[in-house]
Amino acid sequence: MDLLSMMTFWVLATLGACLATSWPLPAERRQATNCNLGYFTSIAPAGVRVERVQHVTNGIFVETGNIGYPTDPTDLPVLCAVILNNVTANYRFGMFLPDDWNSRFLTVGSYSFLGGINWLEMGVGVKYGGVALSTDTGHSSGAGDITWANTTQKQVNWAYQALQGSIYLGKTLTEAYYGQHITYSYFSGCSTGGRQGLKHIQLDPNVFDGALIGAPAWDTKHLMPWLSKLATWNLPESAAYSVNDANLFSRLQAEVLKQCDSLDGVKDNIISSPSACRQKFDITKVRCDVSSNKTSCWTKAQTDTALKMYADYVTRDGELVYKGSEYGSELDWSIFLLPAVANDLSQNVRRNFDAQYERYFMDYGVNWQTTQYNDSVVKDAEARDESVVRASADQFDLGTFRNRGKIIMYGGLADNTVPVQHTTYYYNRTVEAMGNVDDFFRYFQIPGMQHCWGTPDNVKAPWMIGGEGQSVQRPPYAAAWSVPLGFNDSRHDALMALMDWVEKGEEVSQIIASEFNFTDASLQNIVLHRQRPLCAYPKTAKWDGKGNQNDATSWKCS
Predict the structure, then answer these.
(1) In whole angstroms, how far apart are CA 94 and each of 52, 126, 173, 440?
(2) What is the pTM of this model?
Protein backbone atom coordinates (compact mmCIF):
# COMPACT_ATOMS: atom_id res chain seq x y z
CA MET A 1 0.00 0.00 0.00
CA ASP A 2 1.52 3.35 -1.02
CA LEU A 3 1.73 6.37 1.26
CA LEU A 4 -1.33 8.12 -0.15
CA SER A 5 -3.47 4.98 0.04
CA MET A 6 -2.32 4.32 3.60
CA MET A 7 -3.08 7.90 4.62
CA THR A 8 -6.53 7.75 3.06
CA PHE A 9 -7.29 4.44 4.83
CA TRP A 10 -6.43 5.81 8.26
CA VAL A 11 -8.30 9.06 7.63
CA LEU A 12 -11.46 7.17 6.73
CA ALA A 13 -11.08 4.70 9.57
CA THR A 14 -10.56 7.45 12.14
CA LEU A 15 -13.38 9.69 10.95
CA GLY A 16 -16.03 7.17 10.01
CA ALA A 17 -17.57 7.01 13.48
CA CYS A 18 -17.48 10.80 13.84
CA LEU A 19 -19.52 11.29 10.71
CA ALA A 20 -22.00 8.44 11.03
CA THR A 21 -24.51 10.20 13.27
CA SER A 22 -24.12 13.82 12.15
CA TRP A 23 -23.80 13.89 8.35
CA PRO A 24 -25.33 15.64 6.52
CA LEU A 25 -26.65 18.72 8.34
CA PRO A 26 -27.80 22.10 6.97
CA ALA A 27 -25.19 24.83 6.70
CA GLU A 28 -25.46 27.11 9.69
CA ARG A 29 -23.27 28.97 12.16
CA ARG A 30 -20.59 26.66 13.51
CA GLN A 31 -19.95 26.93 17.24
CA ALA A 32 -16.25 27.13 18.08
CA THR A 33 -16.43 24.26 20.59
CA ASN A 34 -14.27 22.00 18.45
CA CYS A 35 -11.79 24.70 17.40
CA ASN A 36 -9.08 23.44 19.70
CA LEU A 37 -5.92 21.38 19.56
CA GLY A 38 -7.45 18.41 21.34
CA TYR A 39 -10.29 17.99 18.86
CA PHE A 40 -8.15 18.14 15.73
CA THR A 41 -5.51 15.89 17.31
CA SER A 42 -8.22 13.34 18.02
CA ILE A 43 -9.34 13.18 14.38
CA ALA A 44 -5.97 13.58 12.64
CA PRO A 45 -4.64 10.33 11.12
CA ALA A 46 -1.43 8.65 12.15
CA GLY A 47 1.62 10.45 10.79
CA VAL A 48 -0.06 13.87 10.89
CA ARG A 49 0.74 16.26 13.73
CA VAL A 50 -1.54 19.17 14.56
CA GLU A 51 0.79 22.11 15.11
CA ARG A 52 -1.64 24.86 15.97
CA VAL A 53 -5.35 25.59 16.30
CA GLN A 54 -6.62 29.13 16.92
CA HIS A 55 -10.11 30.56 17.03
CA VAL A 56 -9.63 33.90 15.27
CA THR A 57 -12.13 36.51 16.49
CA ASN A 58 -10.16 39.75 16.02
CA GLY A 59 -9.72 39.51 12.24
CA ILE A 60 -5.96 38.86 12.35
CA PHE A 61 -3.92 35.68 11.98
CA VAL A 62 -0.12 35.67 12.24
CA GLU A 63 2.40 32.96 11.50
CA THR A 64 5.93 34.10 12.30
CA GLY A 65 8.90 32.89 10.29
CA ASN A 66 7.02 32.40 7.02
CA ILE A 67 9.79 33.26 4.56
CA GLY A 68 7.82 32.59 1.41
CA TYR A 69 4.65 34.47 2.37
CA PRO A 70 5.55 36.97 5.11
CA THR A 71 2.43 39.17 4.81
CA ASP A 72 -0.37 38.19 7.17
CA PRO A 73 -4.05 38.60 6.27
CA THR A 74 -6.31 40.99 8.15
CA ASP A 75 -10.04 41.73 8.45
CA LEU A 76 -10.77 38.02 8.58
CA PRO A 77 -14.22 36.69 9.41
CA VAL A 78 -14.53 34.71 12.63
CA LEU A 79 -12.85 31.40 11.86
CA CYS A 80 -10.82 28.46 13.06
CA ALA A 81 -7.21 28.49 11.84
CA VAL A 82 -5.45 25.12 11.76
CA ILE A 83 -1.88 24.11 10.85
CA LEU A 84 -1.10 20.45 10.23
CA ASN A 85 2.19 18.71 9.57
CA ASN A 86 2.44 15.46 7.65
CA VAL A 87 5.59 14.28 9.37
CA THR A 88 5.74 11.15 7.22
CA ALA A 89 5.83 12.95 3.86
CA ASN A 90 7.39 16.17 5.23
CA TYR A 91 4.94 18.91 4.30
CA ARG A 92 2.63 21.29 6.16
CA PHE A 93 -0.67 22.88 5.28
CA GLY A 94 -3.04 25.39 6.77
CA MET A 95 -6.81 25.82 6.77
CA PHE A 96 -9.19 28.65 7.54
CA LEU A 97 -12.57 27.21 8.60
CA PRO A 98 -15.09 30.05 8.90
CA ASP A 99 -17.75 29.97 11.62
CA ASP A 100 -20.26 30.90 8.92
CA TRP A 101 -19.64 28.26 6.26
CA ASN A 102 -21.42 28.06 2.91
CA SER A 103 -20.30 24.44 2.22
CA ARG A 104 -17.63 25.45 -0.32
CA PHE A 105 -13.98 24.41 -0.19
CA LEU A 106 -11.30 26.56 -1.86
CA THR A 107 -7.70 25.51 -2.44
CA VAL A 108 -5.33 28.39 -3.21
CA GLY A 109 -2.09 27.97 -5.13
CA SER A 110 1.55 28.81 -4.53
CA TYR A 111 3.97 31.09 -6.38
CA SER A 112 7.22 30.15 -8.12
CA PHE A 113 9.41 27.90 -5.92
CA LEU A 114 8.42 29.71 -2.72
CA GLY A 115 8.09 27.60 0.41
CA GLY A 116 5.44 28.50 2.97
CA ILE A 117 1.69 28.53 3.54
CA ASN A 118 -0.03 31.23 1.50
CA TRP A 119 -2.04 32.73 4.36
CA LEU A 120 -2.53 36.05 2.60
CA GLU A 121 -4.42 34.48 -0.29
CA MET A 122 -6.26 32.16 2.09
CA GLY A 123 -7.44 35.34 3.79
CA VAL A 124 -8.86 36.48 0.47
CA GLY A 125 -10.40 33.10 -0.24
CA VAL A 126 -12.19 32.62 3.08
CA LYS A 127 -14.11 35.86 2.50
CA TYR A 128 -16.02 34.05 -0.25
CA GLY A 129 -17.57 32.02 2.58
CA GLY A 130 -15.81 28.69 2.13
CA VAL A 131 -12.97 26.86 3.81
CA ALA A 132 -9.60 27.97 2.43
CA LEU A 133 -6.52 25.73 2.23
CA SER A 134 -2.86 26.15 1.23
CA THR A 135 0.26 24.00 1.52
CA ASP A 136 3.89 24.97 2.06
CA THR A 137 4.80 22.44 -0.71
CA GLY A 138 7.18 20.75 1.70
CA HIS A 139 9.81 23.41 2.33
CA SER A 140 10.55 26.94 3.51
CA SER A 141 12.22 29.36 1.10
CA GLY A 142 12.15 32.85 -0.34
CA ALA A 143 12.21 34.24 -3.87
CA GLY A 144 14.80 32.89 -6.28
CA ASP A 145 15.93 30.09 -3.97
CA ILE A 146 15.88 26.50 -5.24
CA THR A 147 18.73 25.18 -3.09
CA TRP A 148 16.16 23.46 -0.86
CA ALA A 149 15.40 20.93 -3.65
CA ASN A 150 18.23 18.58 -2.64
CA THR A 151 16.13 15.42 -2.26
CA THR A 152 13.66 13.68 -4.55
CA GLN A 153 11.01 13.84 -1.82
CA LYS A 154 11.25 17.64 -1.62
CA GLN A 155 11.06 17.93 -5.40
CA VAL A 156 8.01 15.69 -5.65
CA ASN A 157 6.31 17.52 -2.78
CA TRP A 158 6.72 20.79 -4.65
CA ALA A 159 5.60 19.19 -7.91
CA TYR A 160 2.30 17.79 -6.67
CA GLN A 161 2.37 15.46 -3.66
CA ALA A 162 2.17 18.02 -0.84
CA LEU A 163 -0.87 19.71 -2.31
CA GLN A 164 -2.49 16.41 -3.25
CA GLY A 165 -2.24 15.05 0.27
CA SER A 166 -3.28 18.39 1.79
CA ILE A 167 -6.43 18.56 -0.31
CA TYR A 168 -7.55 15.01 0.47
CA LEU A 169 -6.98 15.30 4.21
CA GLY A 170 -8.22 18.89 4.32
CA LYS A 171 -11.53 17.88 2.78
CA THR A 172 -11.98 15.01 5.21
CA LEU A 173 -11.22 17.18 8.24
CA THR A 174 -13.55 19.88 6.96
CA GLU A 175 -16.47 17.49 6.67
CA ALA A 176 -15.77 16.13 10.15
CA TYR A 177 -15.55 19.60 11.68
CA TYR A 178 -18.82 20.83 10.21
CA GLY A 179 -20.59 17.48 10.22
CA GLN A 180 -21.71 17.77 6.62
CA HIS A 181 -20.53 17.28 3.07
CA ILE A 182 -18.60 19.83 1.05
CA THR A 183 -21.00 20.85 -1.71
CA TYR A 184 -18.52 22.45 -4.11
CA SER A 185 -14.74 22.33 -4.31
CA TYR A 186 -12.80 25.11 -6.07
CA PHE A 187 -9.24 26.08 -6.89
CA SER A 188 -7.64 29.46 -7.54
CA GLY A 189 -3.99 29.87 -8.44
CA CYS A 190 -1.62 31.82 -10.66
CA SER A 191 1.84 31.03 -12.06
CA THR A 192 3.00 27.94 -10.15
CA GLY A 193 -0.49 28.01 -8.69
CA GLY A 194 -1.93 27.79 -12.19
CA ARG A 195 0.28 24.79 -12.86
CA GLN A 196 -0.89 23.19 -9.61
CA GLY A 197 -4.52 23.57 -10.59
CA LEU A 198 -4.07 21.98 -14.00
CA LYS A 199 -1.84 19.25 -12.56
CA HIS A 200 -4.36 18.16 -9.97
CA ILE A 201 -7.21 18.10 -12.48
CA GLN A 202 -5.02 15.82 -14.59
CA LEU A 203 -4.18 13.60 -11.59
CA ASP A 204 -7.76 13.37 -10.33
CA PRO A 205 -10.66 14.72 -12.43
CA ASN A 206 -12.89 14.60 -9.33
CA VAL A 207 -10.72 16.87 -7.18
CA PHE A 208 -12.38 20.21 -8.13
CA ASP A 209 -15.75 21.33 -9.40
CA GLY A 210 -14.19 24.50 -10.76
CA ALA A 211 -10.69 25.90 -11.24
CA LEU A 212 -9.56 29.47 -11.84
CA ILE A 213 -6.19 29.10 -13.58
CA GLY A 214 -3.97 32.17 -14.01
CA ALA A 215 -0.80 32.39 -16.14
CA PRO A 216 0.03 28.73 -15.54
CA ALA A 217 3.69 27.72 -15.45
CA TRP A 218 2.41 24.35 -16.63
CA ASP A 219 5.39 23.25 -18.73
CA THR A 220 8.12 23.00 -16.09
CA LYS A 221 10.37 20.69 -18.10
CA HIS A 222 10.55 23.26 -20.91
CA LEU A 223 10.08 26.57 -19.05
CA MET A 224 13.23 26.09 -17.01
CA PRO A 225 15.47 25.24 -20.01
CA TRP A 226 13.98 28.28 -21.80
CA LEU A 227 15.11 30.45 -18.90
CA SER A 228 18.61 29.04 -19.14
CA LYS A 229 18.60 29.66 -22.88
CA LEU A 230 17.47 33.23 -22.20
CA ALA A 231 20.51 33.61 -19.97
CA THR A 232 22.91 32.31 -22.62
CA TRP A 233 21.61 34.89 -25.09
CA ASN A 234 22.72 37.53 -22.59
CA LEU A 235 26.05 36.14 -21.40
CA PRO A 236 28.58 37.35 -20.69
CA GLU A 237 26.97 40.41 -19.19
CA SER A 238 29.66 42.63 -20.71
CA ALA A 239 29.00 41.41 -24.25
CA ALA A 240 27.83 43.88 -26.89
CA TYR A 241 24.67 41.82 -27.43
CA SER A 242 23.77 41.56 -23.73
CA VAL A 243 20.63 43.40 -22.60
CA ASN A 244 21.09 44.53 -19.02
CA ASP A 245 19.71 48.05 -18.69
CA ALA A 246 16.14 48.81 -17.59
CA ASN A 247 16.18 51.92 -19.80
CA LEU A 248 16.60 49.68 -22.85
CA PHE A 249 13.45 47.77 -21.95
CA SER A 250 11.54 51.03 -21.51
CA ARG A 251 12.73 52.36 -24.86
CA LEU A 252 11.73 49.17 -26.68
CA GLN A 253 8.33 48.99 -24.98
CA ALA A 254 7.64 52.62 -25.87
CA GLU A 255 8.47 51.88 -29.50
CA VAL A 256 6.17 48.84 -29.48
CA LEU A 257 3.36 51.04 -28.17
CA LYS A 258 4.09 53.66 -30.80
CA GLN A 259 3.98 51.21 -33.71
CA CYS A 260 1.36 48.72 -32.50
CA ASP A 261 -1.09 50.45 -30.16
CA SER A 262 -3.56 51.33 -32.89
CA LEU A 263 -3.39 48.03 -34.80
CA ASP A 264 -6.56 46.88 -33.03
CA GLY A 265 -8.37 50.00 -34.24
CA VAL A 266 -8.13 51.97 -30.99
CA LYS A 267 -5.29 54.17 -29.70
CA ASP A 268 -5.37 53.63 -25.93
CA ASN A 269 -1.79 52.77 -24.87
CA ILE A 270 -2.70 49.06 -24.80
CA ILE A 271 -1.35 46.36 -27.11
CA SER A 272 -4.51 44.34 -27.68
CA SER A 273 -3.36 42.63 -30.86
CA PRO A 274 0.22 41.43 -30.31
CA SER A 275 -0.11 38.97 -33.19
CA ALA A 276 -0.59 41.90 -35.58
CA CYS A 277 2.37 43.65 -33.96
CA ARG A 278 4.51 40.56 -34.53
CA GLN A 279 3.86 40.91 -38.26
CA LYS A 280 4.46 44.65 -38.55
CA PHE A 281 6.92 45.77 -35.88
CA ASP A 282 10.17 47.31 -37.13
CA ILE A 283 12.78 46.91 -34.39
CA THR A 284 15.37 48.95 -36.28
CA LYS A 285 13.58 52.09 -35.08
CA VAL A 286 15.31 51.76 -31.70
CA ARG A 287 18.78 51.15 -33.13
CA CYS A 288 21.50 53.70 -32.47
CA ASP A 289 22.65 53.60 -36.10
CA VAL A 290 19.13 54.25 -37.42
CA SER A 291 17.19 56.36 -34.94
CA SER A 292 17.79 60.05 -34.39
CA ASN A 293 16.80 59.50 -30.75
CA LYS A 294 19.98 58.29 -29.08
CA THR A 295 18.51 58.02 -25.57
CA SER A 296 18.71 54.37 -24.50
CA CYS A 297 19.08 53.29 -28.10
CA TRP A 298 19.98 49.68 -28.92
CA THR A 299 22.96 48.30 -30.78
CA LYS A 300 22.25 45.98 -33.69
CA ALA A 301 23.66 43.12 -31.64
CA GLN A 302 21.21 43.89 -28.85
CA THR A 303 18.24 43.99 -31.21
CA ASP A 304 19.36 40.60 -32.51
CA THR A 305 19.11 39.35 -28.93
CA ALA A 306 15.63 40.84 -28.61
CA LEU A 307 14.52 39.09 -31.79
CA LYS A 308 15.73 35.78 -30.32
CA MET A 309 13.59 36.45 -27.26
CA TYR A 310 10.51 37.24 -29.34
CA ALA A 311 10.98 34.05 -31.36
CA ASP A 312 10.06 30.55 -30.19
CA TYR A 313 12.91 28.56 -28.71
CA VAL A 314 13.41 25.63 -31.08
CA THR A 315 16.33 23.20 -30.78
CA ARG A 316 18.67 22.44 -33.65
CA ASP A 317 16.70 19.22 -34.11
CA GLY A 318 13.54 21.22 -34.70
CA GLU A 319 11.84 20.56 -31.35
CA LEU A 320 9.71 23.38 -29.95
CA VAL A 321 10.88 24.01 -26.41
CA TYR A 322 8.99 27.17 -25.47
CA LYS A 323 6.97 29.90 -27.13
CA GLY A 324 8.63 33.30 -27.38
CA SER A 325 8.11 36.59 -25.58
CA GLU A 326 5.12 38.62 -26.67
CA TYR A 327 5.25 42.11 -28.13
CA GLY A 328 4.22 44.47 -25.34
CA SER A 329 5.90 42.41 -22.59
CA GLU A 330 9.25 44.23 -22.68
CA LEU A 331 9.02 45.83 -19.23
CA ASP A 332 8.59 42.34 -17.80
CA TRP A 333 11.95 41.26 -19.26
CA SER A 334 13.65 42.78 -16.25
CA ILE A 335 12.17 40.08 -13.99
CA PHE A 336 14.84 37.62 -15.09
CA LEU A 337 17.52 39.88 -16.60
CA LEU A 338 17.86 42.48 -13.81
CA PRO A 339 19.35 43.49 -11.48
CA ALA A 340 22.80 42.58 -12.76
CA VAL A 341 24.78 43.39 -9.62
CA ALA A 342 27.41 41.48 -7.68
CA ASN A 343 26.16 38.90 -5.15
CA ASP A 344 22.59 39.38 -6.27
CA LEU A 345 20.27 36.63 -5.05
CA SER A 346 17.16 37.57 -7.03
CA GLN A 347 15.77 35.73 -10.02
CA ASN A 348 18.47 37.03 -12.34
CA VAL A 349 18.94 34.05 -14.66
CA ARG A 350 22.45 35.16 -15.63
CA ARG A 351 23.69 34.88 -12.08
CA ASN A 352 22.00 32.18 -10.07
CA PHE A 353 18.28 31.52 -10.30
CA ASP A 354 17.69 29.10 -13.12
CA ALA A 355 21.01 27.32 -12.82
CA GLN A 356 19.76 26.08 -9.47
CA TYR A 357 17.07 24.10 -11.27
CA GLU A 358 19.67 22.19 -13.26
CA ARG A 359 21.87 21.79 -10.20
CA TYR A 360 19.19 20.45 -7.89
CA PHE A 361 16.08 19.25 -9.75
CA MET A 362 18.16 17.75 -12.55
CA ASP A 363 20.99 16.58 -10.29
CA TYR A 364 23.72 18.25 -12.34
CA GLY A 365 25.57 19.18 -9.15
CA VAL A 366 26.32 22.45 -7.40
CA ASN A 367 29.19 23.34 -9.71
CA TRP A 368 27.14 23.37 -12.92
CA GLN A 369 27.18 26.77 -14.64
CA THR A 370 24.72 28.34 -17.07
CA THR A 371 27.57 28.81 -19.54
CA GLN A 372 27.60 25.00 -19.91
CA TYR A 373 24.05 25.03 -21.27
CA ASN A 374 23.26 23.39 -24.62
CA ASP A 375 20.18 21.78 -26.15
CA SER A 376 20.92 18.44 -24.50
CA VAL A 377 19.65 19.99 -21.26
CA VAL A 378 16.15 19.94 -22.74
CA LYS A 379 16.22 16.16 -23.16
CA ASP A 380 17.61 15.73 -19.66
CA ALA A 381 14.90 17.99 -18.23
CA GLU A 382 12.20 16.03 -20.04
CA ALA A 383 13.55 12.69 -18.84
CA ARG A 384 13.90 13.80 -15.21
CA ASP A 385 10.46 15.39 -15.07
CA GLU A 386 8.64 12.56 -16.81
CA SER A 387 10.25 9.74 -14.83
CA VAL A 388 10.73 11.21 -11.35
CA VAL A 389 9.44 14.67 -10.46
CA ARG A 390 6.32 14.86 -12.64
CA ALA A 391 5.82 18.60 -12.16
CA SER A 392 4.70 19.43 -15.71
CA ALA A 393 0.95 19.60 -16.24
CA ASP A 394 1.18 18.65 -19.90
CA GLN A 395 -1.86 16.42 -20.33
CA PHE A 396 -4.04 18.16 -22.91
CA ASP A 397 -6.97 15.73 -22.93
CA LEU A 398 -8.63 16.44 -19.59
CA GLY A 399 -10.82 13.37 -19.86
CA THR A 400 -13.77 13.00 -17.53
CA PHE A 401 -13.21 16.37 -15.86
CA ARG A 402 -15.22 17.68 -18.80
CA ASN A 403 -18.29 15.89 -17.43
CA ARG A 404 -18.18 17.42 -13.95
CA GLY A 405 -15.96 20.52 -13.77
CA LYS A 406 -15.33 23.96 -15.23
CA ILE A 407 -12.12 25.88 -15.94
CA ILE A 408 -11.58 29.60 -16.42
CA MET A 409 -8.00 30.28 -17.51
CA TYR A 410 -6.45 33.71 -18.06
CA GLY A 411 -3.13 35.24 -19.03
CA GLY A 412 -1.77 38.76 -19.39
CA LEU A 413 -0.62 39.77 -22.84
CA ALA A 414 2.25 41.77 -21.26
CA ASP A 415 3.47 38.78 -19.22
CA ASN A 416 7.01 37.59 -19.83
CA THR A 417 7.58 35.80 -16.52
CA VAL A 418 5.55 32.92 -17.95
CA PRO A 419 5.25 34.07 -21.56
CA VAL A 420 1.58 34.27 -22.47
CA GLN A 421 2.03 32.60 -25.82
CA HIS A 422 2.71 29.35 -23.96
CA THR A 423 -0.56 29.76 -22.02
CA THR A 424 -2.38 30.12 -25.33
CA TYR A 425 -0.45 27.11 -26.59
CA TYR A 426 -1.86 24.97 -23.77
CA TYR A 427 -5.40 26.03 -24.60
CA ASN A 428 -4.94 25.38 -28.32
CA ARG A 429 -3.45 21.94 -27.67
CA THR A 430 -6.42 21.10 -25.44
CA VAL A 431 -8.80 22.08 -28.26
CA GLU A 432 -6.79 19.88 -30.63
CA ALA A 433 -7.09 16.96 -28.21
CA MET A 434 -10.74 17.40 -27.20
CA GLY A 435 -12.43 19.44 -29.92
CA ASN A 436 -14.54 22.44 -28.97
CA VAL A 437 -14.21 22.85 -25.20
CA ASP A 438 -16.59 25.78 -24.63
CA ASP A 439 -18.84 23.56 -22.52
CA PHE A 440 -16.29 23.40 -19.70
CA PHE A 441 -13.16 25.47 -20.51
CA ARG A 442 -12.93 29.20 -21.25
CA TYR A 443 -9.71 31.14 -21.80
CA PHE A 444 -9.40 34.91 -21.40
CA GLN A 445 -6.45 37.01 -22.56
CA ILE A 446 -5.94 40.25 -20.62
CA PRO A 447 -4.36 42.97 -22.80
CA GLY A 448 -1.74 45.00 -20.94
CA MET A 449 -1.57 42.80 -17.84
CA GLN A 450 1.80 41.54 -16.67
CA HIS A 451 2.40 38.35 -14.70
CA CYS A 452 -0.70 37.46 -12.69
CA TRP A 453 -1.49 41.11 -11.88
CA GLY A 454 -0.57 44.70 -12.62
CA THR A 455 0.02 46.82 -15.69
CA PRO A 456 2.79 49.30 -16.64
CA ASP A 457 2.20 52.89 -15.59
CA ASN A 458 2.24 54.04 -19.22
CA VAL A 459 -0.37 51.43 -20.16
CA LYS A 460 -2.95 51.42 -17.33
CA ALA A 461 -4.90 48.56 -18.84
CA PRO A 462 -7.85 47.03 -16.96
CA TRP A 463 -6.56 43.84 -15.33
CA MET A 464 -8.24 43.12 -12.02
CA ILE A 465 -10.73 40.22 -12.16
CA GLY A 466 -10.40 38.64 -8.70
CA GLY A 467 -7.61 36.26 -9.73
CA GLU A 468 -5.14 34.92 -7.20
CA GLY A 469 -2.91 37.65 -5.83
CA GLN A 470 -4.83 40.48 -7.47
CA SER A 471 -7.05 41.99 -4.78
CA VAL A 472 -4.18 42.48 -2.30
CA GLN A 473 -2.33 44.69 -4.81
CA ARG A 474 -4.76 47.53 -4.07
CA PRO A 475 -6.19 48.99 -0.86
CA PRO A 476 -7.13 47.71 1.61
CA TYR A 477 -4.27 45.35 0.68
CA ALA A 478 -3.99 42.56 3.31
CA ALA A 479 -7.65 43.09 4.18
CA ALA A 480 -8.84 42.99 0.57
CA TRP A 481 -10.84 40.47 -1.41
CA SER A 482 -12.55 40.27 -4.80
CA VAL A 483 -12.60 43.56 -6.80
CA PRO A 484 -12.72 46.86 -4.86
CA LEU A 485 -15.22 49.73 -4.93
CA GLY A 486 -18.22 47.44 -4.93
CA PHE A 487 -17.39 45.37 -8.01
CA ASN A 488 -17.49 42.12 -6.03
CA ASP A 489 -19.95 40.35 -8.30
CA SER A 490 -19.84 37.68 -10.98
CA ARG A 491 -19.66 40.23 -13.80
CA HIS A 492 -16.32 41.58 -12.52
CA ASP A 493 -14.92 38.74 -10.39
CA ALA A 494 -13.77 35.63 -12.26
CA LEU A 495 -13.97 33.36 -9.21
CA MET A 496 -17.58 34.38 -8.63
CA ALA A 497 -18.25 33.89 -12.34
CA LEU A 498 -16.76 30.40 -12.08
CA MET A 499 -18.98 29.60 -9.10
CA ASP A 500 -22.09 30.73 -10.98
CA TRP A 501 -21.06 28.62 -13.97
CA VAL A 502 -20.59 25.55 -11.78
CA GLU A 503 -23.57 26.02 -9.47
CA LYS A 504 -26.12 27.76 -11.68
CA GLY A 505 -25.04 26.76 -15.18
CA GLU A 506 -24.42 30.40 -16.18
CA GLU A 507 -21.81 30.26 -18.95
CA VAL A 508 -18.99 32.81 -18.84
CA SER A 509 -18.63 34.60 -22.16
CA GLN A 510 -17.02 37.76 -20.77
CA ILE A 511 -15.53 39.17 -17.57
CA ILE A 512 -15.25 42.90 -16.98
CA ALA A 513 -11.70 43.83 -15.95
CA SER A 514 -10.98 46.95 -13.88
CA GLU A 515 -8.07 49.34 -13.37
CA PHE A 516 -7.85 51.98 -10.65
CA ASN A 517 -5.98 55.22 -9.95
CA PHE A 518 -4.55 56.21 -6.59
CA THR A 519 -5.87 59.53 -5.33
CA ASP A 520 -3.11 60.40 -2.85
CA ALA A 521 0.55 59.80 -2.08
CA SER A 522 -0.28 57.39 0.74
CA LEU A 523 -1.58 54.86 -1.81
CA GLN A 524 -4.50 54.08 0.47
CA ASN A 525 -7.31 55.45 -1.67
CA ILE A 526 -8.37 54.65 -5.23
CA VAL A 527 -10.93 55.60 -7.84
CA LEU A 528 -12.01 53.68 -10.92
CA HIS A 529 -9.94 54.46 -14.02
CA ARG A 530 -11.00 52.00 -16.71
CA GLN A 531 -13.16 48.96 -17.24
CA ARG A 532 -13.32 46.74 -20.28
CA PRO A 533 -14.78 43.33 -21.08
CA LEU A 534 -12.44 40.41 -21.52
CA CYS A 535 -13.77 37.99 -24.09
CA ALA A 536 -13.64 34.23 -24.21
CA TYR A 537 -10.82 33.37 -26.62
CA PRO A 538 -10.58 33.68 -29.59
CA LYS A 539 -13.08 36.56 -29.43
CA THR A 540 -11.77 40.04 -28.58
CA ALA A 541 -13.32 43.26 -27.31
CA LYS A 542 -14.28 45.78 -30.02
CA TRP A 543 -15.00 49.44 -29.32
CA ASP A 544 -18.35 50.68 -30.61
CA GLY A 545 -16.67 53.76 -32.10
CA LYS A 546 -18.61 56.32 -30.12
CA GLY A 547 -18.78 55.57 -26.39
CA ASN A 548 -16.28 56.38 -23.66
CA GLN A 549 -13.35 54.01 -24.20
CA ASN A 550 -12.89 53.67 -20.44
CA ASP A 551 -16.46 52.40 -19.99
CA ALA A 552 -17.09 48.68 -20.40
CA THR A 553 -20.47 49.33 -22.04
CA SER A 554 -18.68 50.86 -25.04
CA TRP A 555 -17.15 47.50 -25.94
CA LYS A 556 -18.56 44.26 -27.32
CA CYS A 557 -17.06 40.81 -27.76
CA SER A 558 -16.79 39.61 -31.34
Answers:
(1) 9, 12, 12, 30
(2) 0.93
